[in-house]
């Protein structure tokens, strides 16, 4: 690509920022341009360790990244509690916003981010990598196929990992002042997105959290699950946890087909990912599952960055409007996150989900 | 095996009786001896089509099978609503009882069956084939292994099949007067047994049915699901249905390992069955799943018959007492079935499970 790549500034040096720095390097229409941290030395070290070019700008704070006129877009991996402030500021400074998930502490906060992005005409996207893997497009084909899959009846999703003692004491994801949504916002986000994806982004009517979620002493969710209900007997369940072995699973049942993926949020291998389907009708016919393999040159997070930069480029160059789809998906996911949290707080009553 | 095989009488000519007739033929310590149906001609046809020896007794009713002094054991595939009467009668006639699942319409009925079996000293076993597959023993080793699996945290199980229009209008499993427990008793039984198996048969404290089960016009469950809770954040969920594509799934999450089986209740192939495990600790280490294959000479239902006949033989020959384990597993499964049904009937409130 000979055109000028989109120049990224990164706010903060979180672990996930390492993954995204590499993704920006791998993305053909993107380039690492600046990094800001509350500590200049930390930012410098981060840039050195993560392949930033020698010309990259190193800032000892976040605001200087936003004030740099050559930064096109920012990637914001800050703790969730800081998203409102910094995503809004970024939009106001005319920077396009690639924001880590969960996008906000609740949908009211996210609506302020949306407004800032819309008023300022900047592109928004959240950091849900797997949406951009070509495998996802292939799986979408399957669940949309009335002959192979039929109508979706139910989907179950799991995302858990065993955080371990150090994580459970120290990680920002278990601190109420930082990532107050805990496992629900971190890994539950992926489960909810998978469920919405399977339902072609139709919101459930009601959400009922499972009794007995595990909270830490400060009230942050370490493990929870929920039941989601649509009309006509369509349902979903999910389980998210920091307390059990790494499992990243999705099983979707249609009237005539079944889809299974065991690494939906992040494939075991970067260049090759698989999923399994079974299509059949009736009780007695039994067919072996079909194993589908999808190859890709770019890791999914680099595909995400590439798509984001493509959208930014067309706004910058062509006067296109921002693609609103990504805001919509983020908002629906956040609405369900909020409903699960509300159900937990309301004694596991069913909560209506209203767009 | 040169010893006299256990002589089976079969009550009724249900579809599943074809599978069990073959299993009895394949089982080295068992033999087909008699069949009874309300129609003599139907019984005769069944015997001819299912490999009964020419000497087999054909009866035009059930009671004559029980009155035949040469019948050692009966297999009872009658509709659930008839289990109480015929299992009790069989026990009273000193016949050992292999009873199809669900074992009864409720645990109160089952307790009468238990009492009849205990008073008459006959062996009882229900027809949950997969308990007897050698794969199950290998999976038990895995979930019992604190190094590879750790402590069980949660398990999700699915058993569904798309019954189709004819099934949904005509099958005994959708008739309130015959198999009143519908999908819950038929396929939900397997999910509940899988969950109890993973928890080493510890009963859950509470059961909460999911809202919005699908019932037919006569109130029989066509689809439902439930959440089960133990102490210390241990949970399970299941989904059972006559309305979506054949899916027979179990995913168990331990603190350091995960078990997945995609055909737990009946393997895709008779002589070879597989399961998948992942064992790892922590957040960043990622290992590929291990695929385990277990081969067997006998299909699982023939292994079941063989084990049942072995127990019967040792009672007959050696004066052993009946093995009480199988009654216990049936009763626990039925208790959970009853609790799910009670929760559905009580507006999806949590129901305490009491042994």
Automatic annotation (TrEMBL), chains A, B:
Task: State the family named in the UniProt similarity comment for this chain.
Answer: Belongs to the Gfo/Idh/MocA family.
**One Pfam family hit:** GFO_IDH_MocA
* Residues annotated as domain Gfo/Idh/MocA-like oxidoreductase N-terminal: 6-125
User: What PANTHER family does UniProt report for this protein, alphabetically?
Assistant: GFO_IDH_MOCA-LIKE OXIDOREDUCTASE N-TERMINAL DOMAIN-CONTAINING PROTEIN, PTHR46368
Q: What is this protein called?
A: Gfo/Idh/MocA-like oxidoreductase N-terminal domain-containing protein
Domain named GFO/IDH/MocA-like oxidoreductase is located at 146-259
The record's SUPFAM superfamilies line, in alphabetical order, gives: Glyceraldehyde-3-phosphate dehydrogenase-like, C-terminal domain (SSF55347), NAD(P)-binding Rossmann-fold domains (SSF51735)
GO molecular-function terms, A-Z:
nucleotide binding
Q: Which domain of life is it from?
A: Eukaryota
């Amino acid at each position: 690509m000979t055109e000028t790549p989109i120049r990224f500034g990164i706010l903060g040096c979180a672990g996930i920022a390492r993954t995204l720095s590499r993704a920006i390097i791998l993305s053909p229409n993107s380039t690492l341009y600046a990094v800001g941290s509350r500590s200049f030395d930390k930012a410098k070290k981060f840039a050195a360790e993560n392949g930033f070019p020698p010309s990259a700008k190193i800032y000892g704070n976040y605001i200087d990244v936003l004030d740099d006129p050559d930064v096109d877009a920012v990637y914001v991996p800050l703790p969730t509690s800081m998203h409102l402030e910094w995503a809004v500021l970024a939009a106001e400074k005319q920077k396009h916003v690639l924001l880590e998930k969960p996008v906000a502490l609740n949908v009211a906060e996210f609506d302020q981010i949306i407004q800032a992005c819309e008023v300022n005409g900047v592109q928004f996207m959240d950091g849900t990598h797997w949406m951009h893997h070509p495998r996802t497009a292939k799986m979408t084909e399957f669940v949309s196929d009335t002959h192979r899959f039929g109508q979706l009846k139910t989907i179950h999703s799991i995302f858990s990992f065993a955080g371990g003692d150090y994580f459970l004491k120290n990680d920002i994801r278990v601190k109420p002042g930082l990532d107050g949504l805990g496992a629900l916002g971190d890994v539950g986000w992926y489960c909810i997105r998978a469920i919405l994806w399977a339902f072609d982004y139709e919101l459930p009517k009601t959400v009922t959290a499972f009794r007995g979620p595990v909270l830490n002493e400060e009230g942050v969710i370490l493990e929870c699950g929920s039941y989601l209900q649509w009309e006509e007997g369509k349902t979903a369940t999910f389980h998210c946890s920091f307390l059990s072995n790494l499992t990243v699973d999705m099983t979707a049942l249609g009237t005539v087909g079944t889809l299974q993926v065991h690494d939906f949020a992040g494939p075991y291998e970067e260049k090759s990912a698989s999923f399994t389907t079974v299509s059949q009708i009736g009780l007695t016919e039994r067919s072996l599952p079909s194993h589908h393999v999808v190859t890709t040159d770019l890791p999914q997070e680099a595909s995400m960055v590439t798509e984001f930069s493509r959208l930014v480029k067309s706004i910058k160059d062509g006067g296109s409007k921002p693609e609103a789809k990504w805001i919509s998906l983020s908002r629906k996911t956040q609405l369900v996150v909020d409903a699960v949290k509300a159900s937990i707080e309301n004694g596991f009553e069913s909560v209506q989900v209203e767009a």
